[in-house]
Design a protein that fits this description.
This protein is about 25% helix and about 20% strand. About 40% of the residues are buried. The chain has about 350 residues and is of the alpha/beta class. Strands 1, 2, 3, 4, 5, 6 and 19 form a seven-stranded mixed beta sheet that branches. Strands 7-14-8-9-10 form a five-stranded parallel beta sheet, covered by helices on one side. α1 (about 15-20) crosses α7 (about 330-345) and α3 (about 170-180) crosses α6 (about 235-245). The chain is globular and about 70 Å long. It contains seven helices and 19 strands.
Amino acid sequence: MKIYDLIIIGGGQAGLSVAYFLRRSGLDYLILDDQKESGGAWLHYWDSLKLFSPTDYSSLSGWQMPETDHEYPLRAEFIAYLKAYEARYKFPVQRNTFVFQVTKADELFKIETNNGNFYAKTLVSATGTAKNPYLPSYPNQNVYQGVQRHAVEYRSGDAFKDQKVMVIGGGNSGAQILSEVSKVANTTWVTLEPPRFLPENIDGRYLFNQATSNFFDETTEAFNRQVSLSDIVLVESVRDGLKRDVYHAVRPFVSFYKDGVVWENGNKEAFDAVLWCTGFKPNLKHLEALDVVENNRIATKDTRSLKEPQLWLVGYGSWTGFASGTIYGVGKTARDTAREIRAYFKKHA
């Protein structure tokens, strides 16, 4: 029975980032990835998606993403970069391996997969959120007979040609998808609050720096402005949507009925489809048998589980490190995680 020093579950940006900082550690590790190719969650996003930062802020540690022909890289270009990044550092990745469950006995993790069982002394979970899309619950939602799709299932606006479509969600995904769908369909945009568009000269790099300043220095004037990583960046598709005047956000409805939604004033309105751009929740189901998951979170100090100290979690969002769910932000938490793992093996040598 082969026993690895470490197994990393997930071969996307978070898993590769941890592997980068462990590449000279001397540890015997393996990345288990459930995809058939490089790209992680990016393989499942819509075709026209654009990142909202230039390449220097859309790169992983160690190797900057090569310049592209676009101001903001396309989804396909970032996937190609991840593939090249993985090949550049020759990370050990086993593809098409879906982790069903993780258990632990005698200080060893047993990772049960569709390709058999794997064993490791330590574990990094970097499965992200894309496999656990969040859909808010509305009364009579199951009665609605139209199409409902989460953004992770959306590919292009072609499927909604000449239809009446509601797009729900006020972040970058909602704005980009609405712009595309509005070219071929009659759209309504529903957001919890009025959406916030950044000035044209501000993009994800400035947004990240501003949010970092807010996070680490609550005394700054910037903190009081509460700049958010969810503010909408004016990538090309969003600028086009603004030019066509398609962004007229309304507040949420109160319930569904079989043909559409019921607004707060009691009026009913029919829709052929509803697109949920409402984000994701951490994908932690595979860790439930370890008895560490509570309210879809795992208590951590930085990225290390408090209840199971041989387990680290990387890339799930702010609770595993500031901006750790972003391309640019995951590097710091991955570096600190790798440092802790090396220290663990040094102590237990």
